[in-house]
Fold:
Amino acid sequence: MSYKTIVAGVSVDTRHWIGGERVASAETFTDHSPIDGQPIGEIARGGPAEARAAVAAAKAAFPSWAATPRAERARLLHAIADGVEKRIEELAIVETTDNGALLRSHRRGVMPRVAHNFRFFADWLLTLEHEDFETRGHINHVSWDPAGPCVLITPWNAPLMLATWKVAPALAAGNTVVLKPAEWTPLTASLLADIAAEAGLPAGVLNVVQGYGAEIGDALTSHPDVRRISFTGSVPTARRIAASAAANLTPLSLELGGKSPLLVFADADLDLAVDLAVEQYDNAGQVCLAATRFLVEESVAGEFTQRFVAKASALQQGDPRDESTDVGPNIHPRQLEKIDGFVQRAIAAGARAVIGGQRLDGQFYAPTLLTDVAQDSEVVQEEVFGPVLTLQTFADEDEAIRLANDTRFGLAATLATGDRERAERVTAQLVAGTVWVNCFFVRDLQAPFGGSRLSGVGREGGTWSFDFYCDLKNTVTAPKGFKDHG
Structure:
């Protein structure tokens, strides 16, 4: 059978990439486009054998890559970034076809950011150092030693960007990588393997394996030669990964989504607040950081809702390849069923759909806002991961903070207020890895990123990424005992 598929004129090899070679599997699975539900291609379906082969390739390549000077590692990462920039249009159309996100966003924002991910960590690597310090005349020197093969498991909502948030720092740190993309969106990871090879990355330094969940995942995460695991996805899957990694005490970085609030105070610029609120429908609501719970001060709740409904109702839903589309499809029929289940159960329990509340043709769900929801209700407490938002009101600052923190999650929070002192008071009390004040989704790669509570374990970004992907070593040197060799 053919292991190549053509997506809008772009050829994608659907085999694994292991040890610098394309590797087929005995079985395949079908990749479908969420735009129209049509098959895109047959993908090599890996299992324990492919997992073991990929880890073996990463282990074999590790000593040489770890010993590669920082400047050469950085040069190769910049070469990968160059390759991404040359293929932005190809990557954009393949990603849109595979995951349904807006083509205009992929062209203008996402794929340029992919290139930036590599450039940032290449440059950060060259400046990575800790000032030596003295202890009773002894000199302490901190260094970052490459840890070894890393398993990186990535989600389907922003496949290539989220993959390269992990791949770039792991490679920069001197580690080798086994990347396992989500089975619903495997194509751009395969293209990344091509780009890395064309850039001159040595064989085995980056490996890409495809497959369904535990079929291949358990063999990767339980492998004794794996030194780091980074995962972005659901809490149940993270628990399984953690259990699998426990036998080897493999360090984990877990980013697990959330149920983030948007707090709107009466002193906020309401136009700005509404713009921030409507932005939560980005990527059809399939954004882990999305502020899906609106908490609005009682005195402005009516006006806020009216303005929000007017603006949200003007969003254009349709083919994500169309420049005028604002909201595309949801990723998979199974996800669509999950979204609708949340909404219908909420309505049956007394919630009111101010807008939306129903499935549309194909894999589309109407942008939805639910009111009259209880704080302990399922739709307020659990991550829907679709274009479904809730609105609650609060009487004062204390109640706003209490409602904001009253979930099992703590990934992010967004705050709209015109009072700088209030912003400082409230943000200090919010349980969240990232808080945005009068803005949303502004992320600098030098900042720490991660979640609290069930939103995750650990932080990545800037030096925090190198702290995770490396073994930190402190060398203490005495001022005596050396012979003078003249």
Summary: The first strand starts at residue 4 and ends at 7.
